[in-house]
Specification:
Strand order of the largest sheet: 1-2-3
Oligomer: single chain
Order of helices and strands: EEEHHH
Helix content: 40-55%
Number of domains: 2
Structural class: mainly alpha
Radius of gyration: 17 Å
Strand content: 5-15%
Largest sheet: 3 strands, antiparallel
Length: 113
């Protein structure tokens, strides 16, 4: 069970360093303790082939990096579209891809202040 979040569908806590003894336990691969002892969150992606790049673009605040992240997300989406072309399943993913491409288009056209 995860925590609902407006940006991501669900996030799942990985580790919390509330107890100092937990800091001595080995961490799972790909995790690390937060300097403030906050709970580290692991993102669960419904479409892992392209969604991480898409979410990274949505969260980017640096304009120069934003355009790079949008391009990476679009490339990952194009690659996935080729992979699912002609399949009868995947309607949900195709709808998500359409929405993601629309959002990326708006990101590219939106001026930063």
């Amino acid at each position: 069970m995860g925590i609902p979040c407006s940006t991501f569908s669900w996030v799942t806590p990985i580790v919390s360093l509330g107890d100092p003894a937990e800091a001595l336990l080995p961490l799972s691969r790909g995790t690390w303790p937060d300097a403030n002892g906050e709970t580290i969150m692991k993102l669960a992606f419904k479409f892992p082939e392209w969604e991480p790049q898409y979410k990274a673009a949505l969260l980017e605040v640096d304009r120069a990096k934003l355009l790079e992240r949008v391009a990476a997300a679009e490339a990952a989406i194009r690659q996935r579209m080729r992979a699912i072309f002609g399949r009868t399943d995947g309607d949900t993913e195709r709808q998500a891809i359409g929405k993601a491409l629309s959002a990326l288009s708006v990101l590219k056209e939106t001026p930063f202040s």
